[in-house]
Amino acid sequence: MSLHSLATADVPFIDSGNTAWTIAAAALVLFMTPGLAFFYGGMVRTKSVLNMMMMSFISMGTVGTVWVLWGYSEAFGPDLGHGLLGNPFSEFGLHHVMTAIYGYVPAAGGSAATGGIPGMAFVAFQVVFAIIAVALVSGAIADRAKFTTWTVFTVIWATVVYFPAAHWVFAFNGYAAKAGGWIANGGLFLHGHGAYDFAGGTAIHINAGAAGLALALVIGKRVGFGKDPMRPHNLTLVMIGAGMLWFGWFGFNAGSALSAGTLAAGVWVNTLGATCTAMLGWLLVEKFRDGHFTSLGAASGVVAGLVAITPACATVTPIGALIVGLAAGAICALAVGLKFKLGFDDSLDVVGVHLVGGLVGTLLIGLLASKSSPNGSGTRDGLFYGGGFLQLGVQAAAAFTVLIFSFVVTYIIGYALHKTMGFRISQEEEIAGIDQAEHAETGYDFGNLFSGSRIGHHPSHEQDARHHDETQEKVEA
């Protein structure tokens, strides 16, 4: 989101170009959640693919519903005090937002006012952020979480953790909310020296990564973790998902300008550059460490770069974006191995990519922020541009505040659900396959490969089918 303060116009009107871009960007970001489902789904074993994809899809249903009811109001309603939380009842059901216009500025000196966007376009753009933030958490507990409990968790976590964090970061003063958020530039954090987070590195990625770590610790390790091979079952799906995420992420970042202009264009280029160098950085680490360039590494590097540039895309130069991406790709490639050394089972590296990548991008703003960035003169220079250590300190304080808040509150939520509803399937169900246990379905019906008029009931064909089924059962186990 644009971080500058906006006010009420003398004669408000809607800018059709800005509105069209914001709605298109919202559609791009919504497309990212199915992309995440492909990305995560391909990374798990055959017996878990449907459950993994459903954990993303159900987030669209639950979070989209509560967003309309109280989520938007909690994130952007009138502030209840000190920028910590919006009033969840003031805009309940969006009844005050239907005719609102956001983003216009007053005409001055006879100049024309700048057009804004409808309040409902802003609602649409923000809900897709909330959806994918919740869905990201699921990758840390793949293969072993009860679907019913996960569904309940999505509603509670969005309400207690994400919506408040969104208010801190995105409710910048004078835009949609009636008072500034706690962390955003123009807000109340650190006596007005707000942190830069243009599109959600703290509220979304650090938040989801810390939450994933907390849930992984509550639920425990998968059966056979560290002993049995748990390789991705379909790297084609992983690559497709990464491509969908990269495509949608231009709406995520450039759409956060909420206008079709130079800011959005500059952010678009920075997003591209950082993602390119992040992929290269991850692959270089793989090559020197393991001797191979892997497709999984390329896809993971893409996501790591997208995560890292999200907070920084408006406040660094194109060269700065390349540095952010390269650093994120290399550091995240090394960080994903921490779960084996530290003994926690973050199934799909939510911690190593989203938490670490979010931290890299957020902290590097303190070093690389520049007035030559897309955000222009409104940006305070970072350490490398002569700005001193102030912005680095502010970025660190914001990042670790969200990290600690998310981890502690998520651990409490997860623990409570684990003790009441049960958050984990049984060991027998996990070994047999969570798809069959939770959904009574399988992702791949191999039996049909041996049916049909050409095969008929020839004994040799039936024997081949039995042999294939036995082999598949061994592979899935």
From TrEMBL:
Spans through the membrane: 20-40, 52-70, 120-142, 149-170, 198-220, 232-252, 264-285, 292-312, 318-338, 350-369, 389-417
Keyword tRNA-binding included in the entry's annotation: no
Compositionally biased intervals (Basic and acidic residues): 459-477
Positions of the UniProt region annotated as Disordered: 457-477
Sequence ranges assigned to domain Ammonium transporter AmtB-like in this UniProt record: 20-444
Keywords linked to the UniProt accession: Ammonia transport, Membrane, Transmembrane, Transmembrane helix, Transport
Keyword NADP: no
UniProt xrefs under InterPro entries: Ammonium/urea_transptr (IPR029020), Ammonium_transpt (IPR001905), Ammonium_transpt_CS (IPR018047), NH4_transpt_AmtB-like_dom (IPR024041)
A GO MF term: ammonium channel activity
Family recorded in the similarity comment: Belongs to the ammonia transporter channel (TC 1.A.11.2) family.
Name of this chain's protein: Ammonium transporter
Species of the source: Rudaeicoccus suwonensis
